[in-house]
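pipeline: protein-struct stage 2 | run 1193 | lipopolysaccharide heptosyltransferase II
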Amino acid sequence: MSTAGSGAGWEQARRVLCVRLDNMGDVLMTTPALQALADSLPGRELTLLTSRPCAALAPHLPMVADVMTWDAPWVRHDPQPGTREVSDGIAACAARLAARSFDAAVIFTVYSQSPLPAAILCCMAGIPLRLAHCRENPYALLSDWVRDTEPNLDTHRPPRHEAQRQLDLVAQVGAATRDPRLRFRLAHADRDSVAALLRQLGARRHVVVHPGATAPSRRWPPERFAAVARQLADESGALVLVTGSAGEAGIVAQVCALAGRAGVVPLAGRLSLGEMGALLASADLLVSNNSGPVHLAAALGTPVADLYALTNPQHTPWMVPHRVLFHDVPCRYCYKSACPQGHHRCLREVTVEQVLDAARALLAGEACETAMPWHPPAAAAAPSVPAVPAAPGLASDTPPFAEETAHVHTWH
């Protein structure tokens, strides 16, 4: 990794825009870098520009003075805006930023994203210092360019964790923190609300199970979550609280019904973000698909059994006891919201007993951590997979799915 730009001027940059336009989990994994920026200059004021769904994080980020929201047109939204709406929206956002007279901007991206649209936005807003990772030479769009060389298939090492990637980025302009853990500030009112709920439920100990995820590729089957919830309720005597958004009420109800235990309780749509944080902070364990609650639990120090679809390698729980559960497949790291192969083996072949073993170990206080698989240096032949019989109506020589290795890309 090389850097263009000397970092000059950052020691005087007091009003800093931090751009993180994707999901809540991504913002949470950026909090150590945000803290580093705040710690490195007394009186520095950080403003976070993020997506509208992340606005709920505003009161929970102690290092951020203000949160601005905008649904950037280069990030997936439904429905997609038209051309005029896009151009007007970019101009309007640039004007909002220009009115704030920022001294500098840090653009945070995963390695499969380009920072250049956000860099253009910051140039339009007249922000003089602009820092980001970038794969191609950005020339004048970035004042401080950190060349992005990840992922690198010529090594045995997977890409850095997302939190470390962003810490390394801000280190290029002299920002560092003594505490690199994720951050999430709890409010007393949220703690009190959750304490009252737990008293009402008669809970002394509780485990949280979160069966939902925004992307279908990251969802373990609900009937298996139900089996895990039932067994944990029977073995530990703890209350098992099944969480989800209001839109996930169906899957939460399904898990609880299949579990068939009074001690497995649905909480879909009943908790604010702050209350969800307070619930996780007081829990013995979270069992979840790899989604926002995993990173929320990590920020609060709660152990995590993480059902991890191999869509990407760098979003595991950060600096908290955890087990990452997956089945390795040749098509790993597809970066897709839905399984391109249709079989979903990286999650479907994780068994209930494997998850229970992980949960038992974490509840017993065992130190647990899982290394993510990565391509060998020769990055050549992937393991062979048994042939799948042709579906009815297909010729016998027509595969029902694409070759598993056909979409294994270094980045998307």
